[in-house]
Every structure is written in C-alpha cells, then in structure tokens.
Amino acid sequence: MKTSRRDFIAKSGAAAAAMHDLAHAQEPHQEHDHEHSLVPSDPALRVKSLESLLVEKGLVDPAALDALVDTYEHKIGPRNGAQVVARAWVDSGFKKRLLADGTAAIAELGFGGRGGDYLQAVENTPTVHNIVVCTLCSCYPWAVLGLPPIWYKSAAYRSRAVIDPRGVLREFGLELPKDVEVRVHDSTAELRYLVLPERPAGTEKLKEEELAALVTRDAMIGVAKVPAPKPGGRA
Amino acid sequence: MNGVHDMGGMQDMGAVQREKNEPVFHQRWEGRVWGMMWLGSAWGKWNLDAMRHAIERIPPADYLRMSYYEKWLAALVDLVTGRGLVTRAELESGKPAAGSAKATPPVKAEGVPALIARGNPVKRDVAVAARFQVGQRVRGRNINPTTHTRLPRYARGKIGTVERDHGVFLLADSNAHFQGEKPQHLYSVRFAARELWGQQAAPHDSVYVNLWDDHLEPA
Questions:
Q1: What pLDDT is recorded for position A112?
Q2: Contact B137, B192 (CB under 8 A)
Q3: Facing residues of B164 across strands?
Q4: Helix (H) or strand (E) holding B166
Q5: Which has fewest Cβ within 10 Å: A220, A233, B36, B109?
Q6: Mean pLDDT computed over B95-124
C-alpha cells in the first residue's frame, strides 16, 4: 500500500509539474523574452515560410505589412482614447456629442476606421459602471485603444466577465458598492465600446493634456477607475 | 456553432492574468500573421466574419491550448488554402507553383492609412423594416446552428429589452459563409443579470448584447 501511495504521489507530482509547465507556457512572456527570440519557435518558422510564399506570389506586399505593424505598435493605441476622454471631461458639448454618436465625435479628433467604424461611448457615473468584453472572440475598439492586451482575449476574462463581472473587477482591485449598477457590454457585432470613466476628484485645475495622461487603458475598458493624481506629483 | 469559443458564462477558466507593460506583439511573427490576415483579406476572398469562423473551427482542445496568434495562424492557413489563394502543395513547399504568374498586391505601404480608414463598413443603407421597437421585450431565439452565429448561448431562450436600434447591418451569421449579407436591424438588447444567471447575480446588474432581427422573437 505504501509503495502505491508513493507512486501516486510521485505521479501526481509529475502531473502537477506538467500542469505548471503548461500554465507557464501560457503566461505572458517576461524576463525570458530574449532567450525565446534567439531560438525561433515553431510558429515563427511557419510564419516566415508563409510570408515568403505570399510575397513571392505577389499576394502581400512586405512593406505594407511593415507599415501596418508599425502603425499599431507606435501610432494607434490607448493614448488616442485618453485624448477622447480628456476632451469629454473638459468640453461638455463634446461629451454630449460623444455619447450621442461616438463615431462622429472621435472623428473630430482624427480617429476612426478599423475597430471604430461604429463606436458607442458609455459613461461611468457614481451609480452606473460599464465594463466591456467580447465573449465570442476578441472584438475591441482598435481606433481608440489599439490592439487588446492578452488578458482581454483570455478564456478567463471572456468567460467570467458576463457571469461574474464584480468578481473580475475585484481581481483588478475594484470593489464596487452593491447599489452601483454594473452594465456589461458583450461586443457581439461590429459596434465597439469605449468606457468614459469618471473624472477623478482633485483634477479641477489640470489642463486637457494633463488629464489625458491620467487616463488608463483599463479604465476605458471599464475594469478600473482613473486614479486620482498623486498629491504633490505632476499628472 | 456551439463551440468552445462561445465562452460567456463558463467557469473554472482561472484568474485573469495580467502583464505589466505588455508589448503590442510579443514576438515578431505575431505581427506578421496579424498583418497578413488583414492584407490578405484585401483580395476579397474572405471577410472578418469568415475569419472569425475559421478560428472557431479550430478543434476545441487545440483552441484552448493555442496562444491567440497561433489561432490566427491556423485560421490564415485555412483561409488562404480554402479560399484558393494558395494551394496545399505551395504551402508545403513554401514556393509558388512552377510557371504561376506573380500577382500585384492590392495594398502597398502607401495604401495602409487608407486601408485602416476604410475600416470594416458593415452598415447598409437599405430600407428594411425593423421587426422590434425600442422598449420592446424580446427573447433570444433557441437556435443551435452548426454554422457561425453571433447569438451567444447564454442569451438563447432569455428575455431582454431592446435598448437601441442601431440601424441595418449585414448579418454576420450568413456573411461568414459567403451566403449573402441578409441586411437587417441590429439592436442593443439588455438582459437583466438575474434573467441570465439566476439569483446569484446582483439584482440591478445587466448584460447588453448586440443582436440582429434573426436572433430575436417577441416575448
């Protein structure tokens, strides 16, 4: 009996280690990034081969690919959305237009196109909290937030945001009072959502650019609030 | 399709793992796959709905195991071969078939801003009567197609209220299969959290879902 019990423990230990490896493999890369990029992983080789085929056949222009990637790595990202939010905080006319027709309002700031063709802004207030998810895939307001982070596309977030939004928010460090109404927006069509967070207290004297610097991506997804500026610190 | 991709309401998927200072792409190949999917779609051989369905068709165990862009790679291979841009033999050899003519890419680097600006226009300016009115009570239809649908399982058979009528949009469910646009009204439907999940949900919380006429029936 002892032996089999030891066997069992050894086996479950190995299984746990395997589980750990598996879990680790799915974790976002951090300090190991450098090692990884020295040894091309299987998908890297397959993608390289596919790209050279598509380029050789004249199906895809590699310079266009460079330009597309560069645009979303450096130009289109959450700083766009932060400008929209800051403008809405300082300009009540803009805020009204944003809530009435998000697409037209972000166009005033030069934003739009892919992932923002049909934008709906939803306003957080002391009594209503909005949070955005795409349970079926990974729909996200590219035009104002860029491409989504891994957690937004994860099974954990997609599955739970609709059934347990308060539990998810708690993991993000946001505990909402019971009397606050939580509205979850599941992006099941081509409409995209931008959460207009509450303007934090103590920001009355800040300029629009300083306000924009306070606005976080997570607050515009609705999994966080915009933090108040640090006392004495610059925005 | 009642696939594993339809995750809303599933449990035991673990805690949400966040990464500080996350890059847009973690590996170079991820950006290449992402970009090829978009630029490749400029040939008009597939649309965004078909692309989503290609990802949904990945076998469930693989779907859960693969990283996000590994799924995109699988879907891209499926689309370029399945939609006739590339043959299996070309894919395996990595070389164009002998004697095949070289095409001209529809989007060059200078065309990228216009490509982004064009977006994915799926709203249609056609006169189609709305089957439901704002404020009306509706029920998510109890349908279980084996094909693409944007009606999540958790909303089927559940009663909600039409909050907004967004106008006429092409229907993703048929567009994904190249079976026509079937333009019809798209709504925001509000479902009370307790209608979806029972008494364990908070009394005033709700889930808003974008649903088309074909997904709804009067309640």
A1: 97
A2: no
A3: B188
A4: strand B159-169
A5: A233
A6: 96
Interchain CB contact of A48 with B (< 8 Å): yes
Q: Identify the active-site residue in A137, A154, A159, A187.
A: A137
Residue B163 near residue B134 (C-beta atoms within 8 A)? yes
CA of A133: which chain B residue's CA is closest?
Answer: B8
Q: Is B32 left (phi over 0), alpha (psi -120 to 50) or beta?
A: alpha
- The reported pLDDT for the residue numbered A29 is 41
Q: What distance in Å separates the CA atoms of residue A47 and residue A139, rounded to the nearest whole number?
A: 23
- For residue A65, which phi and psi values (nearest 5 degrees)? -60, -45
Where chain A has pLDDT below 50, the residues are: 1-40, 235
A215 in helix, strand or coil?
coil
Interface A–B counts its CB contacts (< 8 A) at 272
Average pLDDT over residues B142-151: 98
Spatial distance between the Cα atoms of A221 and B5, rounded to a whole number of angstroms: 21
Out of A52, A134, A154, A159, the active site residue is A134
Chain length of chain A: 235
**Amino acid letter, B156:** R
- H or E stretch including B40? helix B28-41
ipTM of predicted complex: 0.98
Q: Could you read off the pLDDT of B2-18 as tens digits, one per residue?
A: 999 999 999 999 999 99
CA dist A126 and B5 (Å) reads 34
pLDDT of residue A230: 79
CB A121 within 8 A of CB A221: no
Q: Is A164 exposed, middle or buried (0-12, 13-18, 19+ CB in 10 A)?
A: buried
What is the model's pLDDT at position A71? 98
One-letter amino acid identity for B53?
A: H
Residue owning tokens 């925005």: A235
Write down the pLDDT at residue A19.
40
B119 to chain A, closest Cα gap in Å: 4
Report chain B's mean pLDDT, rounded to a whole number: 97
